[in-house]
Design brief:
Layout (H helix, E strand, L loop, with lengths): L1 E5 L2 E5 L7 H9 L3 E7 L11 E7 L3 E5 L4 H13 L3 E3 L2 H12 L3 H5 L2 E3 H8 L13 H9 L3 H15 L8 H4 L5 H26 L2 H23 L1 E2 L2 H24 L14 H10 L23 H8 L3 H28 L6 E2 L2 E3 L9 E3 L11 H4 L8 E8 L2 H10 L2 H9 L5 H8 L5 H15 L4 H10 L9 H14 L1 H16 L3 E3 L5 E3 L6 H23 L6 E5 L2 E7 L3 H12 L1 E3 L2 E3 L1 E5 L8
Parallel strand pairs: 2-5, 3-6, 6-7
Antiparallel strand pairs: 1-2, 3-4, 4-5, 8-9, 10-11, 12-16, 12-19, 13-14, 15-16, 17-18
Length: 613
């Protein structure tokens, strides 16, 4: 039997006929048991996905098993399904991989699985760029264990296989031979790192009641989210093809306009990306550029900028400047929208479904993220994009979205009497900013245009920052002048005085506590910048209320109908006959009361196609 000595322990690599008794003996006497997988890629449902090797063991002994060997496969299944309590790092990835590739029973595995990734996020939810530990093994091991072995073995693997064979970085793990010694050491040390990390940080969680409670919530939530991910959502290829053609034609028409009408000289594939020519044309139309890009070695003072902010400013101009800017933005937008559709197609599984990767505690606020494809980013207002996704055959889409959840959390946290009264009486929370911008007779579109200002001020954003966010958003149409946004934020402050006092005090208190705060739902957070404290406090508590809603939907026996989570919205697939009953059950399950503030939902029964309500 082959073995490798490592600074953290010994790695055993048995052959197809070697005894595996050492695996069961080790499992029976070990307190900190860990497992990990090495795979060909990250998309579990791609045609070429497979688990290449499975490694298991404890703090100083690891075994590398090859599922291509029948005896090894039987041991993998035995340990995964009926072995001791098992620690993973990002357990959902490994559990789904073991299910899809090796046929392991997901529910049996999940019943004994624990996740060091979850624990690390409870201890410090921040990424490194915000002063946190980060959550990758190669970031956590130096911090908690005092070893850089993950980075070292990764570098050794690259030197041995990637660099010498001219393999692209992204293809290393797909193509590397399973018997390469550096690959075996890389895999084995992940077991040591995970087991040692569990031994280190799990007791830290247990010593703090608030983290112990959250751990008991987050582990089962992760499994529930994974159950939804495993089911996926049908993808309409024919609709997607039509959508691609639709956006590509609009893009090409805008591109043609830029070249033929405006005389843009393409410096690459796209006229809308030919910044030098566009800047010359705008200058010829009398525009004076004031914004510059960040300084670089090539351009120490930066270059004149033609970014989205500048283009949106120009687009509000009358005459040729506005026309040209709108043509550029149209080309950019339609290329972007077409890429959304292509991105979904690229992530399509062999079962004809997309299976988005949902990370339940990804952000520093513990907000969820969705990727591969990023359905949270899909525009709500275009049926060609969201419409690619369908309910199951013979079923319809049911959506349920929390109503004004951020304002309701803000009202509960601050006990603002005006905000509370409006929520309880069903009054319009955005009327104050809409009136400040457009007068008391504002219409629905004007109210929609004012909403970003209300949300921005809820997080105590200043007028310049709110305007910048409106400019950068793909969904914002009208962007008011800075002075008008300032007028609207002042109106917000006068209307919701108690909330503003609470938010300012929270900022001050968070600064005194060196960035530490505890949310209304009892979650400890570490804020990177003190001024962001209201944002963290409200968004994190809103996320916890949403997570509780997902749990309640599962406990109501409706978990198998969930297909997606998008911001504060759940998407379900239901039969037409049961739709009304399920709608009532989902609304009941997700509704709650937070410090006397009602948390309610707005649900909608649609067609088979997921689209705007």
């Amino acid at each position: 039997m082959k073995s490798h000595a490592h600074e953290l322990g010994t790695i055993y690599v048995p052959g197809p006929n070697d005894s595996l008794k050492g695996v069961t003996d080790l499992a029976n006497r070990s307190q900190w048991w860990a497992m990990d997988t090495e795979t060909t890629g990250l998309n579990h449902y791609a045609a070429d996905f497979r688990v290449k090797i499975v490694q298991m063991g404890t703090v100083d002994e690891a075994w590398i098993l090859n599922p291509m060997y029948p005896r090894h496969l039987a041991m993998i299944r035995k340990m995964a399904e009926t072995g001791p309590e098992t620690w993973f790092h990002n357990m959902i990835f490994d559990l789904i991989g073991l299910e899809v590739s090796l046929g392991c029973d997901f529910d049996l595995m999940a019943a004994r699985a624990k996740d060091t990734d979850i624990c690390s996020r409870l201890l410090d939810p921040r990424p490194p760029q915000k002063g946190g530990t980060g959550h990758k093994l190669e970031q956590l091991m130096p911090h908690y264990l005092g070893t850089a072995s993950k980075k070292d073995t990764k570098r050794a693997l690259w030197d041995a296989w990637g660099r010498g064979n001219k393999v692209k970085i992204g293809d290393v793990f797909r193509d590397v031979p399973v018997d390469l010694p550096e690959y075996e050491v890389y895999a084995g040390q992940d077991v040591f790192g995970t087991a040692r990390l569990a031994r280190k940080i799990h007791p830290m969680i247990q010593k703090r009641p608030e983290l112990r409670r959250l751990s008991a919530v987050e582990h089962p939530l992760s499994i529930r989210i994974a159950s939804m991910q495993r089911i996926g959502m049908p993808f309409d290829k024919r609709w997607a093809t039509k959508g691609e053609r639709h956006f590509d034609k609009l893009r090409d028409d805008a591109e043609k306009q830029l070249v033929e009408k405006w005389g843009v000289k393409q410096s690459g594939q796209w006229a809308h990306a030919s910044a030098a020519s566009l800047k010359d044309i705008f200058s010829s139309l009398g525009v004076t550029f004031t914004k510059r890009t960040k300084p670089s070695k090539t351009y120490p003072e930066g270059q004149l900028s033609l970014d989205k902010e500048v283009l949106k400013e120009f687009a509000q101009s009358k005459g040729e400047v506005g026309e040209l800017a709108r043509d550029v933005l149209a080309a950019k937008r339609n290329k972007h929208y077409g890429d959304y559709v292509r991105g979904m197609r690229d992530k399509l599984g062999t079962d004809g479904r997309i299976h988005p990767n949902v990370r339940p505690m990804q952000a520093a606020t513990a907000r969820m993220s969705v990727s591969d494809p990023p359905v949270q980013q899909l525009p709500r207002d275009d049926v060609w994009i969201r419409g690619c996704l369908l309910a199951d055959e013979g079923e319809v889409v049911l959506t349920s979205d929390f109503a004004q959840i951020e304002f309701r959390v803000g009202a509960a946290a601050s006990r603002d009497p005006v905000m509370t009264r409006k929520i309880i009486n069903g009054e319009d929370l955005h009327a104050v900013t809409a009136t400040a911008l457009f007068g008391p007779n504002f219409n629905k579109g004007q109210r929609q245009a004012s909403k970003p200002i209300g949300f921005g001020r809820l997080y105590m954003g200043g007028a310049p920052g709110i305007r910048q966010q409106m400019i950068e958003s793909d969904t914002t149409g009208y962007v008011p002048p800075l002075k008008d946004i300032k007028t609207a934020t002042n109106a917000f402050d006068r209307e919701y005085r108690t909330y503003v006092r609470w938010a300012k005090k929270l900022i001050a208190d968070t600064g005194k506590a060196h960035g530490h705060l505890t949310t209304l739902t009892g979650r400890p957070l570490i804020v990177h910048k003190d001024y962001a404290a209201p944002n963290y406090a409200v968004q994190s508590a809103a996320r916890d209320v949403f997570a509780a809603g997902i749990t309640a939907v599962h406990k109501a026996g409706l978990g198998d109908k969930l297909r997606l989570v998008v911001h504060d919205e759940v998407v379900l697939s239901v039969t037409r006959a049961e739709a009304r009953e399920v709608q009532r059950e989902v609304d009941r399950a997700m509704s709650a009361t937070l410090r006397g503030i009602p948390i309610t939902t707005e649900s909608h029964i649609g067609s088979r196609r997921w689209q705007k309500k």
